[in-house]
Amino acid sequence: MPGTLLAGRYRILGLLGRGGMGEVYRATDLMLGQSVALKFLPEEAARDTRLIERFQGEVRVARQVSHPNVCRVYDIGQIDGMPFISMEYVDGEDLSSLLLRIGRLPADKALETARKLCAGLAAAHDRGVIHRDLKPQNIMMNKRGEVVIMDFGLAAVAGGLSGGLSGPEARNGTPAYMSPEQLKGAEVTVRSDIYALGLVLYELFTGKRPYDAKNIRHLIDLQESLALASMSSIAPDVDPAVEKVIRRCLDPDPARRPANALSVSAALPGGDPLAEALAAGEMPSPELVAASGKVEGLDLKYSIPLLVVTVLCLLATIPIRMHTNSLLHAPLDLPPDALQSKAREIAASFGYTNRPADTALSIQKRTDMILGMARLPKPLKWDEWMAAESPIYASVRESPSLLIAQPTGEVTEDNPPPVVAGMLQANINGDGRLSWFEAVPLEADAIPPVTPETVFQAAGFDSAKFTPKAPEYHERFAHDEQLSWTGPHPSIPGVTVNIDAAWWKGRVTMARAELRFPGPPRAAGNPQPAWIEWLITVANAIGIFFGILLARRNWRTARSDRKGALRLAWVMLIVGFVIWLGKVHPVPDSNMLPMFFTAAGEWLFDALLMWMLYLALEPAVRARWPHSIVSWNRLLAGKWLDAQVGSHILIGAATGTALFVAANIPDLWQVRSHSTLDAGLNLTAALGTRQWLQVNALQISSSLAVGLVGFFVIFGLRVLLRRDILAAIAAALLFTFSRPDIYDAPHLAITLTVYIVLYSALIFTLLRFGLVATIAAVFFINSYQYITVGTAHLSWITPPGLATLTLLLGIAVFAFWRSLGSRELIAGNPACNG
User: Fold this and answer.
1) What range does the domain containing 103 cover?
2) Which of 182, 253, 643, 644 has the lowest tally of Cβ within 10 angstroms?
């Protein structure tokens, strides 16, 4: 009765209503000093254990949802064996009585109410809660005009948005506001609530129920035939877009309804056109995708920290490299041209005095030497040893004829094959000393024999400290004499040096200075298991096969983004051409043309492969996950200055630089523990402007390929596993174990951990920010290997390293500038405005 005090806390004010799940009273919470609603089970139901469990379940479910458009549940209690819950008291009128009184809401008020209903329902769905009894009687309009969804008494935790209920539980609710699958007792999911939402919205805009059925069988027939009266015939001011989205909500096939309540809200007039297309079950066009999403860039509170992180991590490259790379511990006084000249001097001293017709030069790392030094007794004196033995060598090939390297023009150790008499290769250490020499014997007359002392002088060792020994190697070229010596290294204790040489008619045809380190060599890591190689090969073949089929189908059904695929193919072609220009060994035009056309075939194949994959897979992403390619489509459309494109490039730059620094932590730890000093920078870019452009074009190509293929793989896993976190974990493991280099790592557990964390972060970037951010992150990570900057500022490797560092800084600053959009970096002071 009114005035009754319950539990010494609640003063009953009056009965609000009765329903299938109990009685609801208005009361005053004396402890909190506010009005509340108390809901009790009926007396006869309070003795039903099953109903009590459902009642308690209502509290557990409802307390998970906190939103202005959802009735708030406060507490649970019991009085005289009667369980009750206290909840927010909504002072207003339920939607059913309001519509009965006024007929229907005005179009603008109905639209506002519809959006709030969608927001409240989306909040419940986000917590994995399905209402199952959404109807006008369970929707309140308070005195301020706010919409509040009530009565989760029939709701249940569905175990996530993809979960559902089935069996007898599915049929609990009000038949007139049930979906077809709910009426049939089939599985009830989030899309069942979307159906009920469509019924409520229909009534909200028209004042009429969509279906007037005589019984449940008749109702099911009407629902499945979609026999809806036109909303505009009932209410002429209803926007056609509203009717379109409501009809999608009322589709008898759950799979064809909007995926969630927010999609419904976005599809209403004034919403996101991209979400509208998705809610309508339509394939958004690439132009619509590009036009969707935000037009402004990042807020300064995000963009400034991202830029700071990028700049600091790029600058941190210098001390990190100094601590983890042997290259920057070496003097490196002789540039590549000087090393090439030194190779010519040594070749002449070995009996090859004629000037070569052609010469090719490359720079290599002495990785085996670095790994051998890491096995020496501690402490490791890296600076001293790097001064004694340079960690790099210049590989110089000379030929009495042109070095025509078929098929594409890239000269390597065995291309063109060393078959011409007088062809030679000399590997000259970075300090100008010979490491290895090999020459095809000349048929010329014999000359006075080149002395062993000449070989020792070229290698930079004192022959007096070496003793003869039996030769260990069988040389591949003809020779009439072969000698070997062994002796201690003059600067590195515990290391011996083997000197080997062979002669033919007085000329040296082979010379080698090999360092021998104490102890067993580093155990070779486990090779990549054969089954993984086989699995990758089969997966690639299957992927290409089905990619061709998908591309063909998408082309014929006009689903594919033909313009985007063509633009991507052109980019791959141009980038491939730039890469070839940096790798090809120039020879006269008559010999270049065949190599150009062969190389062009390779670029064309790569471009066609990317074109085919894009045609095959992009439509599925655009249909299901279009927000992740909004900035990508803008980029393809030539909107380089778009604020969102700049924002995503900046996010990718910060992610890539931060991941690089994080990935180097194990290397820093290994150096600290004196276990190794990585040999690891790439010096290709230091050979000249042409090669610098080549490596950057290579990074663009690699980033596009890795970003796009990885993007499609993750998307496929996401569709298959249905959970972002599961897809991210599966993709990280897949990418990690598909790397052949991890199986040879000296610290496998550390390497695996680093790569899994690295890939997981990249995948999170992809899932959260989309394709452009991921490609930018991959580009920044890959470009780090070309930042050859240390304390030796006058070294020949510094300018190209500085150029790469400046390029990355420039990209980050440019992206930051474009991310501002129409914002000002430093806002003017309003007080100063006249």
Assistant:
1) 92-282
2) 253
Tell whether 146 and 214 lie within a shared domain: yes
Residues 209 and 107 in one domain: yes
How far is residue 133's CA from residue 196's CA, in Å, rounded to a whole number?
8
Residues 210, 364: Cα–Cα separation, whole Å: 76
The span from the CA of 350 to the CA of 353, in Å, is 8
Residues 6+ apart with CB under 8 A from 508: 350, 351, 437, 439, 450, 454, 455, 501, 502
State the CATH number of the domain containing residue 18: 3.30.200.20
User: How many domains is the chain partitioned into structurally?
Assistant: 4
- Sign of the Cα pseudo-torsion (239, 245, 247, 249, in order): negative
pLDDT score recorded for residue 485: 96
Tell me how many helices (H) and strands (E) the chain has: 28, 19
Query: What's the pTM?
Result: 0.69
Is 480 known to be catalytic?
A: no
DSSP 8-state assignment for residue 325: B
Pair type for strands 139-142 and 129-130: unpaired
In which band, very low, low, confident or very high, does the pLDDT at 161 lie, cut at 50, 70 and 90?
very low
What is the per-residue pLDDT for 520?
Answer: 67
Read off the DSSP letter of residue 638: T
**What 3-state class would DSSP assign to 355?**
coil
Counting other chains too, the contacts that 215-224 makes at CB distance below 8 Å and 24 or more residues apart are: 216/175, 216/183, 219/175, 219/176, 219/183, 220/180, 220/183, 220/184, 223/179, 223/180, 223/183, 223/250, 223/252, 224/180, 224/252
Calpha distance 461→496 (Å, rounded)? 12
Shared-domain flag, residues 626 and 493: no
* Res. 193: pLDDT tops 80: yes
Q: At which of 63, 88, 113 does a domain end?
A: 88
Tokens found for residue 482: 């072969």
Q: What is the pLDDT of residue 170?
A: 44
Helix (H, G, I), strand (E, B) or coil at 640: coil
Does residue 255 contact residue 261 with C-beta atoms inside 8 Å? Answer: no
Residues 67 and 96 in one domain: no
What average pLDDT score do residues 136-153 get?
Answer: 84
Residue 668's pLDDT is what? 60
Burial of 40 (0-12, 13-18, 19+ CB in 10 A): buried
Spatial contact of 699 and 779, defined as CB atoms under 8 Å apart: yes
Asked if residue 492 lies in contact with residue 376, where contact means CB atoms within 8 angstroms, the answer is yes
Q: Which of 88, 112, 129 lies at the terminal end of a domain, its last residue?
A: 88
Residue 168's Cβ-count burial label (10 Å; 0-12, 13-18, 19+) is: exposed
CB distance 398 to 423 below 8 Å: yes
Predicted confidence at residue 63, as pLDDT, reads 76
- DSSP single-letter state for residue 119: H
Q: What is the mean pLDDT of residues 398-416?
A: 92
Q: Which position among 94, 133, 431, 642 bears the catalytic label? A: 133
Q: How far is CA 827 from CA 36, 130, 289, 678, 725, in A?
A: 48, 47, 32, 47, 40
